[in-house]
């Protein structure tokens, strides 16, 4: 989301009218054309503010999903998500969606956690349920088991911290291409 500096130096959100104006101006500049599928052409995906806003919303949905399901599925009442983890998930979403015909809108995102015993599915997010999915991403997140954190939290019951590292698997749903796996 764009922020602007007020005269007092405090950042504030732009009004919706201003955001829409900027987006419409950008759309006029790129002359984006829609295909029959409702997806933007590949050339107009670069630096698309809609794509970036959708990515931010998807990362927020991943965070909400993890926080909502952590008590039930991981047995923890408190989940600590490093900012770096969410930032890296956002970067991967944009990078992996860049070559897709519908961009991020065509994604289905599964979120799983590797708790050293098994892979626990936390949930699934359909980025745009009105679009037929074109690719499937599985984010395999890891618990932070190293350093002082586990020793510190052994005294605190039901507190789990996620590692900033993860593995992402991309499967194209419309193509016979192989599976793309990236570990961060």
Automatic annotation (TrEMBL):
Which keywords does this Swiss-Prot/TrEMBL entry list?
A: Apoptosis, Cytoplasm, Mitochondrion
Q: Which family does it belong to?
A: Belongs to the DDIT4 family.
Record InterPro entries: RTP801-like (IPR012918), RTP801-like_C_sf (IPR038281)
An annotated GO cellular component of this protein is:
mitochondrion
Name one molecular function that GO assigns to this entry. Answer: 14-3-3 protein binding
Where is it localised? Cytoplasm; Mitochondrion
Gene Ontology BP, a term: apoptotic process
| Protein's recorded name | DNA damage-inducible transcript 4 protein
């Amino acid at each position: 989301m764009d922020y602007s500096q007020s005269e007092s130096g405090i950042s504030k959100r732009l009004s919706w009218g201003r955001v829409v104006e900027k987006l419409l101006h950008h759309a006029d500049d790129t002359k984006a054309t829609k295909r029959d599928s409702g997806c933007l052409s590949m050339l107009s995906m670069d630096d698309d503010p809609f794509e970036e806003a959708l990515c931010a919303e998807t990362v927020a949905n991943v965070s909400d999903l993890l926080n909502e399901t952590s008590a039930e599925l991981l047995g923890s009442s408190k989940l600590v998500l490093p900012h770096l983890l969410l930032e890296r998930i956002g970067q991967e979403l944009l990078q992996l969606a860049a070559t897709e015909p519908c961009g991020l809108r065509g994604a289905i995102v599964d979120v799983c956690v590797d708790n050293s015993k098994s892979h626990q599915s936390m949930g699934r997010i359909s980025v745009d349920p009105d679009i037929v999915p074109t690719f499937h991403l599985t984010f395999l997140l890891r618990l932070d088991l190293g350093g002082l954190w586990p020793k510190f939290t052994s005294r605190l019951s039901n507190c789990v911290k996620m590692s900033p590292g993860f593995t992402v698997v991309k499967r194209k749903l419309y193509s016979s291409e192989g599976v793309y796996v990236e570990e961060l």
